[in-house]
Amino acid sequence: MCNINILIRKKLKHNIKPFIHSVTSNSFINNNNGEGVYCDYENKVLKSSSKIDYTKIDNIDKSKIVLTHQRYTTSGYGDENIQPFNNNNFVMVHNGVLNHLLKDDKNSVLSDTAILFEKFNKLFEQKKTDIKNRKNVIVDIIKELFNDDYGTYSIFIYDKVTNKGYYFKDNSTRMNIYKVNGEYLYFSTNKDNQIFLNLLNKNDKEFKENKIIDYDITNRAIYEIDIKTLSLLIIGELKSNIKYYNNYHSFKSYNKKKKKKKDKYKKCYVYDNNNNRMDFDEYEQYLEFEKNQLNRNIKYY
């Protein structure tokens, strides 16, 4: 699948071109069907069917947020489908496959992500919100599009108006997030890119070595990223589409429709989205599992 590399920083203090060029070059090796970058300075997106030379882009060192995407094509083979996707409100990058979005128009030249971006913005325009309620509307749209999802996804959305980021993923994709010296927040789908973190603050005598926080990301949680403070906050959660089965029927239908004693069938098994099986010996174990899936506590970072 595709690679995503995003760098957010508090201050325009250092030359970040070597870091950006290094991580994107490493990510482009196996994802070389196109590359794109968004820089908040001058609010521009650059796209190319070949590798971008970031050392020659002046906007990089003048930007506090740099979003890059290295493409592995699974749908929509034209260069117009190279990410990031961008308009007056949002910038979006996506890693994964959303084939269900292509079913409505099998002859479409658009990729699954291009269709997703259109749907997201159409819903946003329909809801017509003010800036105070903007975050709630964005979260509602994410839930509307992904609560009963099919496919795989790891998605970052940047809201230009409020200067906030939103990130969410399913359990089949990965994202590595690092905070470096409290000055940088780095997102990467490629774990190997952590070896380049020493390029950040390289010439700053204040830091003899980088102090790095490695975040543990919760699947299906919706994160808000404060661009100014580099903080992450869970502000919502997508419903699990895990299906529950036992030898007869799901516990839900068993209790609601059959209305028999809950301990008649003590064992059941569960298949998750990756077709992994989990066995439960007691009904109470299942209830605890379901509770943890649907009612996680909000976490602050």
Characterization of this structure:
This protein is an alpha+beta fold and 301 residues long. It has helices spanning 17-28, 112-127, 134-146, 251-258, 283-294; strands spanning 3-9, 35-39, 44-48, 65-70, 85-86, 90-95, 154-159, 164-169, 176-180, 184-188, 212-215, 221-226, 231-237, 243-245, 268-271, 277-280. The protein has 2 domains: 3-237, 4-Layer Sandwich (Glutamine Phosphoribosylpyrophosphate, subunit 1, domain 1); 243-294, no CATH class. The protein has 5 helices and 16 strands. A hairpin with a 5-residue loop joins strand 15 (268-271) and strand 16. Helix 2 crosses helix 3. It is globular and about 50 Å long. The protein starts with a strand and ends in a 7-residue tail after the last helix.
Residue fraction in strands: 25-35%
Helix content: 10-25%
Helix count, per DSSP?
A: 5
CATH fourth-tier homologous superfamily of the largest domain = Aminohydrolase, N-terminal nucleophile (Ntn) domain
Largest sheet, if any? 7 strands, antiparallel
Q: Can you tell me the overall shape? A: globular
Query: What is the radius of gyration?
Result: 21 Å
Q: Give average pLDDT, whole number.
A: 83
CATH fold label of the largest domain: Glutamine Phosphoribosylpyrophosphate, subunit 1, domain 1
* CATH domain class name of the largest domain: Alpha Beta
Give the count of structural domains: 2
- Straight-line N-to-C gap: 29 Å
